[in-house]
Design a protein that fits this description.
The chain has about 400 residues and is an alpha/beta fold. It has two domains: about 10-195 and about 375-390, Glycogen Phosphorylase B (Rossmann fold, 3-Layer(aba) Sandwich), CATH 3.40.50.2000; about 200-375, Rossmann fold (3-Layer(aba) Sandwich). The protein is about 45% helix and about 15% strand. The strands form two sheets. It has a six-stranded parallel β-sheet, with helices on both faces. Strands 2-1-3-4-5 form a five-stranded parallel β-sheet, with helices on both faces. Helix 11 links the parallel strand 6 (about 215-220) and strand 7 (about 245-250). This is Glycosyltransferase family 4 protein.
Length: about 400
């Protein structure tokens, strides 16, 4: 698959100011919401008008929260009924989009893909408008793999229908682009646009001064599969000159077990959780890391935390897999480990923990990568606008 990061110059992107109708079905304020809000903000900063149409629950949700009645309804309904209801939601969503379109008169429709959500595709076809579809995961495959999908044929049909209806499909990684192409989308309609950051939120990093401990850091929703228990055990066994500590910025179901493990190993004071952090707090929290951790990653995702670590100029440890290698290179701007090696993660981590010069050089190279490739939300807005402009008559 040859789809690569799109590179639109500011002149190309700004030649026409667009009216963009942004459609979504997000209910919760999590990483999805970060992507949505950041891209919309960047498009507006570039001078485009953006009208966002989505569930009212999203506007009311707090950081890390979601609509309780929606999640309760999903649990109460039989799986097959809930999936048909998901598809049925496209009907009132389409009506809301149509009402917005009549008032707003958009040039293009931009939608964040969600399984069984076809409102934007229907409207684009009806109004004969260019349709751009952002894809963050192959949701039919993902939900089938985790066993919470009853109507697999319906899911594949709705996913393929949405992807093939788009004039431009915007997967967040080249790995995900292969899924899109395999679904029958022509290669020339596929344009990889990964996650990003607002660079101005991350000041030029200052080298960390030697201190009483080396701080290992993680940002995100903490689940068992992230493997942070290995970090806690490694901290307890560490015999380096400077002790190690772990700071976790976020919440998640794995937190109680990690805190209990730290108490059991006698290092509770060196395993710290900040709890949920507001977006504006993240840059300063990451700047206090010596080593930034991406212990595991879904094979097709574009991890937001990686871009935050890079912008902050932190030394990164991450798995050596294709989607990660799209932005990180072992030995140049990160240390990548073999996920199949049970000791690989800790070997890379401990190497960085004991080598401040290597931490500094990798961190500086990571930030240079962000700047050189414009891995920012503003850069993404320019890419989106340039693609949309080419689709207009």
């Amino acid at each position: 698959m040859s789809a690569a990061l799109d590179t639109a110059t500011p002149a190309e992107a700004s030649s026409r100011k667009l009216r963009i109708l942004y459609s979504h079905r997000i209910q919760s304020r999590d990483g999805q919401g970060v992507h949505l809000d950041a891209l919309v903000q960047a498009l507006r900063q570039e001078g485009h008008e953006v009208r966002v149409v989505g569930p009212a629950a999203y506007d009311r949700a707090e950081l890390g929260g979601e609509s309780s009645w929606i999640s309760g309804l999903r649990r109460a309904l039989p799986a097959a009924v809930a999936e048909v209801a998901e598809l049925g939601y496209s009907l009132p969503a389409h009506a809301r989009l149509m009402a917005a379109a009549r008032e707003f008169r958009p040039d293009v429709i931009y939608e964040r893909y969600n399984l069984h959500y076809l409102a934007g595709a229907w409207l684009a076809r009806r109004l004969r408008l260019p349709f751009l579809l952002e894809v963050n995961a192959p949701l039919a495959e993902e939900r089938a793999r985790f066993g919470n999908l009853a109507l697999k044929g319906l899911a594949r049909w709705s996913e393929n229908n949405a992807w093939r209806a788009a004039d431009a499909v915007l997967p967040v990684t080249g790995v995900l682009a292969e899924h899109v192409e395999a679904a029958g989308v022509p290669r020339d309609r596929i344009h990889v646009i990964p996650n990003g950051i607002h660079l101005e939120e991350f000041p030029e990093p200052v080298p960390r001064m030697p201190g009483q401990e080396v701080v290992l850091g993680f940002v995100g929703f903490v689940r068992d599969w992230h493997g942070l228990d290995k970090v806690v055990r490694g901290i307890a066994e560490w015999r380096g000159e400077v002790p190690l500590a772990l700071t976790v910025v976020g919440e998640g179901p794995a937190r109680p077990g990690l805190e209990a493990l730290a108490r059991e190993l006698g290092i509770a004071e060196r395993v710290r959780f900040t709890g949920l952090a507001q977006r504006h707090e993240v840059p300063s929290l990451v700047s206090d890391f010596d080593v930034a951790l991406q212990p595991a990653a879904v094979p097709y995702c574009s991890p937001l935390k990686v871009f935050e670590y890079m912008a902050a100029g932190r030394a990164i440890v991450a798995p050596d897999q294709p989607n990660i290698r799209e932005v990180l290179e072992h030995g140049r701007n990160a240390l990548l480990f073999d996920p199949s090696d049970p000791e690989g993660f800790w070997k890379a981590l401990s190497r960085l923990a004991g080598d401040p010069a290597l931490r500094d050089s990798l961190g500086r190279a990571a930030r240079r990568e962000v700047i050189a490739r414009d891995l920012t939300w503003e850069g993404n807005a320019r890419r989106v606008a340039a693609l949309a402009g080419k689709l207009l008559p």
